Amino acid sequence: MSMTRAELQDAAAKAFDGNLTPDAAHSWNLIADMGWLMMAVPEEQGGLGLGRAAAGVIHQALGRTLVAGPAIAQMLVIEALSAAGGQDELLGRAMAGEVMTASLADGLSAVPDADRASHVLQVEAGIISLLPVGDLAFTARTTWDGTRRLFDVDAGDAAGIVLATGDAATALASRLSALRSVALAADCLGGADAALAMSIDYLETRRQFDRPLALFQALKHRVADMKTALVAAEALFWARASDTAADAVTMGAMKAHAAGVYRLIAEEAIQLHGGIGLTMEHPCHLFLKRATLNAVLGGDGDHWEEARGRQAMTA
Amino acid sequence: MSEALDSLRQEVRDWLAIHAPKDWRGQSTSEAAFLELQRSWFATLAKAGYAVPHWPENWPGGGRSLAQQKVIYEEFARADTPRLLLSFMSTYHAASTLFEWGSEEQKQRYIPRILEGEIWCQGFSEPGAGSDLAALRTRAERKGDVYVVNGQKLWSTMGQFADQCLLLVRTSSEGVKQAGLTYLLLDLKAPGVTARPIHQIHGDEEFAEIFLDNVEIPVADRLGEEGQGWAVAQSTLSSERGLTLLELSARMRGALWRIGDLIRANGRGEDAGVLRDFGRLASKVDATCAVADQFLANRIAGEERVGDASIVKLAYSRTLREFTSLGLRIGGLEAQYHAPITFGGGMETGNWMADFMNSYAWTIAGGSDEVQRNIIAERLLGMPREPKNWFVKEGAA
Questions:
Q1: Closest by alpha carbon to B246, among B300, B194, B180?
Q2: Is B315 part of the contact surface with chain A (CB cutoff 8 Å)?
Q3: Cα–Cα distances in angstroms (integers) from residue B32 to residues B46, B90, B357, B368, in the given order
Q4: In a domain, A130, yes or no
Q5: Cβ of A308 and B279 within 8 Å?
Q6: Under an 8 A CB cutoff, do B294 and A235 touch?
Q7: Do B250 and B218 belong together in one domain?
Q8: In a shared domain, residues B123 and B64
């Protein structure tokens, strides 16, 4: 990697300077301008060739400030176009920021920003294709998580540009699943880190019984458990993100682990903030809502933990 | 790089096929058999260069990269070799502390003897100084070229079998309690030393208490300066909390098959709930291994922060509890029937009730989980420390 992880993290932190839920359109332009959409694409296809670990840095940054937009879905389309080969024109447009989206769940459900997209990726058994939106119908599905805009897409009998079939489609579907897990896990870990930092700040500032809440050992120990869970999940994330041999189940289990840690920290953040954490004006709830949505997108914990259990049975 | 690792893995596997002790679990049910097995297995490993892969490269058997160490530990766990419990404190705690604080003369005197099988234990905790270690009261008074030591030490792993002891004593009662501590190397054969085993809840006796009655220790056997003991002790504790856990977490990963076998044997192989719990545990074990790896990589790069080792220890101790707890749960009634323990069998022996009870050794010893949480919150995250003033309800004291 020509750019170190730390350098990329610095650049990402500067771009999204800690203000939560930045404007969606502005964020999208920033993501495209910084070249983040071309991060994982090989250099010979016009990308930066920085791989999955670099994409992980980006999605952590987006998760940390709860950036809206279809970045994860766009990365999946870009991965598919790059893997298919011979799609340089579409690939170039996608890397430049023309919205092309994909499902973050099964079939064509939970498709982010479908109404702004030019194409939707369709992953089916034995065939992966890119459908122009003109032929599609979509229904907006309002989520509790207000930082995401999801749609159910009805493809009818629309035919698109075929990117892979047969064994190639199976292999690509597996790659897309792994990449989706990496991106979602990164989003989880970025959000968890921000929610934890916010909670610690609050405990140090808020005074009750003539002392800062941070003095109470009962609260400090919970914070220590959250920190330990987060550091371990981050270590697992970096080990997996740079492991090119990791399969979809291994990545899915890692994502389930990261989502579990995000949910723990987001839940605890509200409890530790007390009354203010219950209010719409305070951002605590934004983390909890994104955490619970992330937990079900890309296969939920039950699915991946069972799959990982079966895998461990034969190890 | 990965080709070189694959070839190391094969080399270790081939070596283990010939040299790994066979059927030792069935035989290691007496103390004498345990000691014999531990000594002979350590000697075999030392000769082959596998006893101390974590040592620096200028010492025999050392100089292995992190990745190489992991391969070695994983293969040893897979081959189900005895864990080196007897020499654990010697090769980790004693060696790490000597490497960091020992004079050249002290290193040359003690390090080679570790490879020859000399056993070290640690004399830190006391009846009145557990979590509050710095409150220890074992007293050392300097008389000419020796310190005269009086007091009692507790929870010394393998203390009843050890030759040497890493001893933390009080040389002064002035100023803050940490500043009055000094670190000594005690020859346990010295007159006035008595070591007695402590009987633990799962039936083993891995710890001892040590009584010190006018024991003389040469001043030459002091590590660091007088009054520097707390700083030296941090090096020992950091080794315990971080360094040892690369091996132990790799061993835990290598022992996941025990739970897989148990699930199959009890006909739960298609029970989705059980499979999920197993999968969740496997991810936690993976995360524990990853955080231990990351800790060591940072340590080698000189980027270790105060509290990092506590995170590794807390992650390991809680995961080990979950590991043994899942085994105990799936083991059902069968796991409640008493079975003789395997001395030195490691943390995951498949004797589930014994393993579960033994997991407390890691949530309490070496700084309890609660102490680690304090360190993480106060030292790593910078949250405020406990206030000093307090009172006890009338009649409670």
A1: B300
A2: yes
A3: 21, 20, 23, 31
A4: no
A5: yes
A6: yes
A7: no
A8: no
Structure tokens at A52: 């999955």
Contact B282 A203 (CB under 8 A): no
The answer to whether residue B378 is catalytic is no
Sign of CA dihedral A36, A37, A42, A43: negative
Q: Could you read off the pLDDT tens digit of each residue along chain B, which spans 397 residues?
A: 578 999 999 999 999 999 999 888 888 778 889 899 999 999 999 999 999 999 999 999 999 988 888 889 888 878 888 888 899 999 999 999 999 999 999 999 999 999 999 999 999 999 999 889 999 999 999 999 999 999 999 999 889 999 999 999 999 999 999 999 999 999 999 999 999 999 888 888 888 999 999 999 999 999 999 999 999 999 898 777 667 888 899 889 989 999 999 999 999 999 999 999 999 999 999 999 999 999 988 887 889 899 999 999 999 999 999 999 999 999 999 999 998 888 777 899 999 999 999 999 999 988 899 999 999 999 999 999 987 777 777 765 5
Separation between Cα atoms, residue B309 and residue B134, nearest integer Å: 19
Distance of alpha carbon B346 from alpha carbon B242, whole angstroms:
18
Instruction: Tell me: do B250 and B208 sit in the same domain.
Output: no
Quote the mean pLDDT of chain A: 95
Given CB atoms, is B387 within the 8 Å cutoff of chain A?
Answer: yes
Instruction: Quote the CA–CA distance of B61 and B53 in Å, as a whole number.
Output: 6
Summarize pLDDT for A46-89 with one digit per residue, the tens: 999 988 889 899 999 999 999 999 999 999 999 999 999 999 99
B287 close to A (CB below 8 A): yes
End of a domain among B67, B84, B101?
A: B84
Burial of B43 (0-12, 13-18, 19+ CB in 10 A): middle
B190 contact A CB<8A: no
Spatial CA neighbour of B9 closest among B59, B55, B67, B54? B67
The answer to whether position A82 is within a domain reads no
Q: Is residue B388 part of a domain?
A: no
ipTM of the complex: 0.93
| Whole-number Å distance between alpha carbons of B155 and B206 | 9
- Token reading at A268: 């605890």
Residue B124 lies in a domain: yes
In chain A, residues with a C-beta closer than 8 Å to the C-beta of B131 are none
How many angstroms separate the CA atoms of B157 and B190, rounded?
A: 19
CATH of the domain at B258: 1.20.140.10
Residue A107 lies in a domain: no
Shortest CA gap A235–chain B (Å): 5
A44 in a structural domain: no
> Please, which pLDDT band fits residue A2 given cuts at 50, 70 and 90?
low
Residues B254, B372, single domain; the answer is: yes
3-state secondary structure of B228: coil
Q: Domain tally for chain B?
A: 3
Say if residue B251 is in the same domain as residue B361: yes
Same domain, B217 and B248: no
DSSP run (H or E) holding A208: strand A207-208
Instruction: Report the CATH number at residue A186.
Output: 1.20.140.10
Do B266 and B217 share a domain, yes or no? no
Domain that holds residue B78: 2-84
